[in-house]
Design goal:
Largest sheet: 9 strands, mixed
Bound molecules: adenosine-5'-triphosphate, magnesium ion
Shape: globular
Structural class: alpha/beta
Strand content: 15-25%
Helix content: 25-40%
Radius of gyration: 23 Å
CATH topology of the largest domain: Rossmann fold
Low-confidence stretches: 76-84
């Protein structure tokens, strides 16, 4: 097999568990065959997919070559994507601590966790602001029952944040005619709006600014990391996603930009039948714990799938404020662990 043959073979090689090939996924960056040796460079993003792929290729071509050297291309994404985030600006000098709540994926409960953590911090007597950085899908106003509020300005020409459940809240939804008005902004405009929400909002002095991040690891996450000295990141995941590249990406993004990770919240972790009180580990158990161990981060807590959490949240009645004692405790315990995990400035 010469270089060309191996290139073609790798191009048609299916990614383990997927129907797509390495060629389609553009995962091979260099191939070279000399005598009995194959040298292959892969372009995978995460270490997980690199190892999966490396093992699959080694197994398939072991009979063909005496030696197969597989390496992972060192990507420059860190510099190009995260720019000067190692020495970020500080657009929010009024906040002693900034907590970014994120996950690689949508719909895992970032907003619900952000809202309830922010309120749990306020319940401990801290001054807390909650910034909804999900410009294209702002949910915080609905979750905090502030969705009918409209933007107000004070005499100093600053935006007055909404307030409910003891926290100050700012969301792009405040500035639109209705909270479900779709935004068709370019990402540069979205980013400027967020910067305005940091600079031109009358937050007052804050002990904590909690940021509900949009799903993914894109422009907005990048801007936040560049414009704010984020004190700690909280990663939200669900048991099904624990093993996925998306969560690893979110964890690695924080690690790349040198933001300490307070820990992992496993949301929708298990289900307790309301009638029989029997616990069902619908998606298996132990995933969050294993993930936390692998990245050496704390498992801050596990929150079950709970119909009242969903109903309360979607009605603007956060479980940590208006739920049962059990529900309150899920979030309060997470906040307690978080405060133990990171040395916040207080
Ligand atoms: N522990 C839970 N039990 C039941 N439902 C939950 C739980 N946590 C969140 N939910 C519900 O799941 C849905 C998604 O939650 P949420 O909006 O917080 O996710 P998200 O990660 O912020 O989503 P997006 O990526 O769209 O911003 C909501 O309807 C919410 O009420
Ligand atoms: Mg959300």
């Amino acid at each position: 097999m010469n270089t060309k043959d191996l290139e073609l073979a790798l191009h048609a090689f299916p990614y383990p568990g997927l129907t797509r090939t390495l060629g389609e996924l553009k995962l091979v960056s260099a191939v070279k065959v000399t005598a009995n040796t194959a040298v292959i460079e892969l372009l995978t993003v995460s270490d997980d997919s690199y190892l999966t792929l490396k093992n699959a290729i080694l197994a398939s071509f072991a009979d063909v070559f005496a030696t197969i050297e597989i390496t992972k291309k060192k990507t420059v994404t860190k510099d190009t994507n995260y720019g000067n985030s190692a020495a970020p600006n500080n657009r929010a000098p009024y906040a002693k601590n900034i907590i970014a709540v994120t996950s690689g994926k949508g719909g895992v409960g970032k907003s619900t966790v952000s809202v309830n953590l922010a309120i749990a911090l306020a319940q401990k007597g801290y001054k807390v602001g909650l910034l909804d950085a999900d410009v294209y899908g702002p949910n915080v106003p609905r979750l905090t029952n502030t969705d009918l509020e409209k933007i107000k300005w004070n005499d100093a020409n600053q935006i007055v944040p909404s307030e409910n459940y003891g926290i100050k809240i700012m969301s792009v939804a405040l500035t639109t005619p209705t909270s479900d008005t779709p935004l068709v902004w370019r990402s540069s405009v979205a980013v400027s709006a967020l910067i305005q929400f940091l600079e031109d909002v009358a937050w007052g002095e804050l002990d904590f600014m909690v940021i509900d991040m949009p799903p993914g690891t894109g422009d907005i996450q990048l801007t936040m990391a560049q414009e704010l000295p984020i004190t700690a990141g909280v990663i939200v995941t669900t048991p099904q996603l624990v093993a996925s590249d998306d969560v690893s990406r979110a964890i690695r993004m924080f690690q790349d930009i040198h933001v300490p990770i307070a820990g992992l919240v496993e949301n929708m972790s298990y289900f307790i039948a309301p009638d029989t009180k029997i616990r069902y580990d619908i998606f298996g158990s132990g995933g969050g714990k294993r993930l936390a161990q692998r990245y050496n981060i704390a498992l801050l807590g596990q929150i079950p799938i709970d119909m009242q959490i969903r109903e309360g949240s979607d009605n603007g009645e956060p479980p940590v404020a208006l739920g049962s004692d059990t529900q309150k405790k899920y979030y309060q315990d997470i906040v307690q662990r978080m405060l133990e995990e990171i040395e916040f400035k207080l």
